[in-house]
Amino acid sequence: MTRRWPVWATGAAALAVCALIDPALAQPFGLHANAAPEPGGFAGWILAEQAKFYLKLSHLIRASKADGSAAYTLLGISFIYGIFHAAGPGHGKAVISSYLVANDETWRRGVILSFCSAILQSLTAIGIVAIAAVLLGATAHVMGNTVRVIETVSYVFIILIGLRLFWVKGRSFLHLLHGQPQTQHHDHGHAHDHGHAHAHAHHDNGHAHDPHHHHDEEEASAWGHAHAPEPQELKGPHWLRRGLAAIVAVGLRPCSGAIIVLVFALAQGLFWIGVASTFVMGLGTAITVAAVATLAVGARGFAGKLAKSKPGAALLIVRGLETAAAAVIILFGAALLTGYMVSERLMGV
Amino acid sequence: MTALLRLLLAALASLFVVAPAAAHPHVWVTATSEPVYAPDGSVTGIRQHWAFDDMYSAFALQGLASKEKGKFTREELAPLAKVNMQQLKESAYFSYATVDGKKTPFADPLPGYGLDYKNEILTLNFTLPFKQPVKAKDLTIELYDPTYFVAFTLAKPAPVHLIGAPAQCKLDIEWPREMSYALGKRLSNNPEAATNFGSFFANKIIVKCP
């Protein structure tokens, strides 16, 4: 019995990862149609807070016209609003967290990915309003349609990322399940046709993993990523290039709130105030997304550590978890794309 | 091995469990509603007046031309109103009627709907008829967005007027709840909340006639 505890502990850790990601999912997968989000106590509180702050924004933007100091208050409120707001759907917590779990990325990378995607999200909102509204004088309707096209691209992108990860992780999981000798599929790890240099994946023999573990992890790495990478890889741009897909998929889709705030500021003749507010909001958003991502990575790391104490069966759970995380990305994207899960409508009214 | 598989399945399943996530409103509507009665005492439909918040009002007006800057006539806003009504159809006009315990859908809005713009606030006016006038002892009309992208609040102090209703009819209003930590906690223990989040912030108009 005592020999089996690491297995159970790993299972528990795997469940913990899910439990942590789960409340963080931007919107849930309802198991039946029309399923709408359920507010938890904490989520409910956040919901109430962010609504309060949003309503303050309009007042402060107006006030900034007459009183410059109101602009500073506006930036402060925008920041706090961003933190609370990101708890809601559409800010990539689910995609980024699942991506990090599936790919076994470090928390530091998770934080960087979160910030990059949040900044990109701000830039998209500003770009749309600047081009459509300021330069072309387009209507809200046209902007809404533009956003919808961008959304579709972003959702397809999310699905592609998920499929790619699912393919790699799922295969590795199946190999492990069927107990095939690790060496047989060693080659697979190098057969991926992505444009990413593989040099680093070959020379990590120096590290402490046992050979089986080592091979399996190499195989399992999406985007040709070796676990416990060499220091130079950590410094290098490889992982960021790999994460770029996730950044773009998440950051491409602008936040409806930011677009409404920008257009409102524009109507008040204070477009630049709106731009500043949007960036600060993005910063706040990034903090929330990064926090959720860090939690996910932490739980994943814990599961991984337990797995190492009993490679074999426990490793299966970790691979299964990664595969599940990849599946979540696919389903998330598919639900968004098909409109089964409405992230946010910009033109609903 | 079976234990492991079971664990794995449990882990997978937990990823799909409905999570306590929060939709959040981006549009606020302050509503005034008027159930309309025929001379024979049956309900023909409901007139709605929805005032949007100032940010959404400004957003919706972006790029629209008007003769006089900052002012819009009903005619100038007619194309926008048309688009709004088309889009609202997809959301069942956020209006859900129950007649004597039976859900009763509304038909398409009557012509003559339109937008007004006053004090930088856009107001959408429209009438939703029932398919046929209904005799209702107990009429309940709920106003909410299930996805909670739009937050509806009935206008205070007198949001509902009965038009031509029999004198014995009694009007009752249930205001939407304020979202709070305590309510959130209660809702998270309520399985019903999982299926229809926005309905927990519904405005209820209840008219009882003998």
Explained architecture:
The complex is a heterodimer of chains A (349) and B (210). Chain A has 349 residues and is mainly α. Chain A has helices at residues 5-24, 41-66, 68-85, 93-103, 107-135, 140-178, 199-202, 211-220, 231-235, 238-251, 256-267, 271-309, 313-338. Chain A has 13 helices and no strands. With 210 residues, chain B is of the alpha+beta class. Chain B is built from four helices and ten strands. The radius of gyration of chain B is 21 Å and the shape is globular. Chain B starts with a helix and ends with a strand. The chains are: A mainly alpha (349), B alpha+beta (210). At the A-B interface, helix 1, helix 2, helix 6, helix 11 and helix 13 of A face helix 1, strand 1, helix 2, helix 3 and helix 4 of B.
How is the secondary structure organized here?
The complex is a heterodimer of chains A (349) and B (210).
Chain A: H1 5-24, H2 41-66, H3 68-85, H4 93-103, H5 107-135, H6 140-178, H7 199-202, H8 211-220, H9 231-235, H10 238-251, H11 256-267, H12 271-309, H13 313-338
Chain B: H1 2-14, E1 27-37, E2 43-52, H2 54-61, H3 78-90, E3 95-99, E4 102-104, E5 114-118, E6 121-134, E7 138-143, E8 150-154, E9 170-174, H4 181-188, E10 203-208
Parallel strand pairs in B: 1-8
Antiparallel strand pairs in B: 1-2, 2-6, 3-4, 3-7, 5-6, 7-10, 9-10
